[in-house]
Predict the 3D structure of the following.
Amino acid sequence: MKKIKVLLVDDHLLVRTGIISLLSDQQDFIISGEATSGEEAVEKAGILDPDVILMDISLPGISGLEAAEKIKQEHPQIKVVILTMHDEREYLYNTFKMNIDGLLHKSAGKDEISEAIRSAFKGGKYYSSAVSEMLVNHFIDRFRIDEIDNLILTRREKEIVYLLSQGLSTSEIADRLSLSVRTIDTHRSNLIQKLNLKNASDLVRFSVDFMKKKNS
């Protein structure tokens, strides 16, 4: 049986020791080396020629993503699986856009880590369940924002989206537009339906995201 050579990259000895311990009973893996920085990972990738690199995203010096990009440029045959503690969907989306072979949240257990390594080795892409859920939600939100200009929103509805993005309450919007609170509530309900949102909180979050994109 061919063993999958794994280069483990993390600047914390305790983390590396823990992962090695987790994978110790996997007969098809061998930890071929360890690195503690992005620069060392790039160097050892060329020396050790691992099959898969399991690498933390936050490293001293260049980041795990920067190291992954260099490694992919110099050694495209090497697979890279990134470990992250980040939960922000925008951050994960930017990570997802890179040509990496897997993305794992650091809360992943032995089974997920093992599956990610095997999947990457075989040429697949692996994203842990926690990461996948956040990415899917992010894509849904982005789709809604990208498509808003194709929706038939009235001038008043567009005004309300803008005012919601500024943090105004229903009563404040009513005062600003010289309308009743009941009329604003009706417009909000129509917007929730048109934008396929769940509730008023989703509408506020959508309005903020939309205006950020329009102003970027």
